[in-house]
Specification:
Layout (H helix, E strand, L loop, with lengths): L4 H4 L2 H11 L6 H11 L2 H6 L2 H6 L4 H5 L4 H14 L4 E5 L7 H4 L7 E6 L8 E5 L6 H16 L3 E4 L5 H11 L4 E4 L13 H9 L3 E4 L11 H12 L2 E4 L7 H11 L3 E4 L10 H8 L3 E2 L3 H7 L12 H4 L1 H11 L4 H8 L3 H13 L3 E4 L2 E4 L3
Parallel strand pairs: 3-4, 3-7, 4-5, 5-6, 7-8, 8-9
Antiparallel strand pairs: 1-2, 2-6, 10-11
Helix pairs in contact: 2-7, 9-10, 12-13, 18-19
């Protein structure tokens, strides 16, 4: 398994990144611009305020670098990382999810409670109303169960209603699921889903957040986390949503990111159907069955168990992984369970045969 970036970098660099991450006025784009300009978080942290101003960064960010709150928050995050099943993925980490890395303003840091390897597996998002009708909850449950049994990781936002039903249904069939929070992992919201989140972590799934561990619920952060839900996923299924629902934000972000968007129709008399009907008018695929979703994901197929991979050949196993999502060679070794040397040898053969290609350090499967 590749070494996480936070283990590979120096303690000073790790602490500097955690401090930068807590600064006011410093979002993902500004975080990335600092690393690009100075080469490291340590150098950026030590640079004079005038150098930050030259990059167009606000004075409030530069002046907060040495505040006790920022220092203590970074120290608390370092202590959090020492505990079992608690991880940090950085944007330049080989284990950082490949699909999410392609998203505009990709999170520079991702805190993960549970199994971080899930983030590189094929994911489908299921989202919808917090005040979902009983039929919509039943539909979300049925789709989540079938998709999870088909090998997809079910991704959602841990909200009440459709999100919670989708997460729980995946767990009920021993599937895997990822919850993306709009708060820090130590300020889990909503509190009514605390037991659900704990069950996810205990059963090998994951709860993740781009926000500092102690970040509480702020309204503006929930639409922001939606780009992560869609960015991690091959497609987004909206089960029920009003025209004002945040689920429509997730769906529109998915479309902008080149992901598939699916919507389940409902009664013309039910306000919760209007959002899905609008998505369908905007080009989302009207779906009535799981098969209609799977058919649109050309090339995706459930992988054989790792122990059976030799029987079908390295070409099939690695290509199937790459058809699900672009990956680095290290991530392929992690997800396939093969030694890195074997993965590299197989990739060389596949590249010569024109079946895969490498761009900017990530491997892509070529359409057949």
């Amino acid at each position: 398994m590749p070494q996480p970036a936070y283990r590979a970098c120096s303690p000073a660099e790790l602490e500097a990144r955690l401090r930068l991450h807590r600064l006011p006025g410093l979002g993902p784009k500004r975080f990335h611009s600092l690393l690009q300009a100075f080469g490291s978080a340590s150098a950026a942290f030590s640079a004079p305020a005038s150098a930050w101003r030259a990059l167009g960064l606000p004075d409030v960010s530069a002046h907060a670098r040495r505040s006790p709150e920022v220092r203590d928050g970074a120290a608390a995050a370092l202590a959090w990382l020492e505990r079992r099943d608690q991880h940090l993925l950085m944007w330049d980490d080989p284990a950082y999810p490949g699909l999410l890395a392609e998203v505009d303003a990709a999170p520079p840091l991702l805190f993960v409670a549970g199994n971080p390897a899930l983030l590189e597996k094929p994911q489908l998002a299921i989202v919808g109303s917090r005040r979902a009708s009983p039929p919509a909850l039943d539909t979300a449950t049925a789709f989540s169960r079938h998709l999870a049994q088909g090998g997809f990781v079910i991704t959602s936002g841990l909200a009440l209603g459709i999100d919670g039903a989708a997460h729980q249904a995946a767990l009920d069939v021993d599937g895997q699921t990822v919850a993306v929070l709009g708060t820090g992992l130590q300020k889990l919201y909503p509190q009514r889903h605390r037991a659900l989140a704990a069950a996810m972590i205990e059963q090998g799934s994951a709860v993740i957040s781009e926000f500092p561990l102690d970040a509480g619920p702020v309204a503006a952060n929930f639409p922001r986390r939606n780009r992560i839900i869609s960015g991690l996923s091959l497609g987004v299924l909206v089960v029920e949503a009003s025209l004002a629902s945040g689920s429509l934000i997730t769906a529109r972000l998915a479309a902008e990111q080149g992901r598939e968007v699916y919507a389940i129709p409902g009664s013309i008399h039910h306000p919760g159907s209007k959002g899905c009907h609008q998505l369908i008018r905007d080009g989302a695929l009207l779906v009535e069955s799981v098969e209609q979703i799977v058919e649109t994901l050309q090339g995706w197929q459930r992988l054989p168990p790792v122990q059976d991979a030799e029987a079908v050949g390295s070409r099939h196993a690695l290509e199937a992984l790459l058809l699900a999502a672009p990956q680095t060679s290290e991530a392929l070794a992690n997800s396939s369970g093969w030694p890195l040397s074997k993965v590299l040898a197989a990739l060389t053969d596949l590249e010569v045969a024109g079946r895969v290609c490498n761009e900017a350090g990530r491997w892509f499967a070529r359409p057949s």
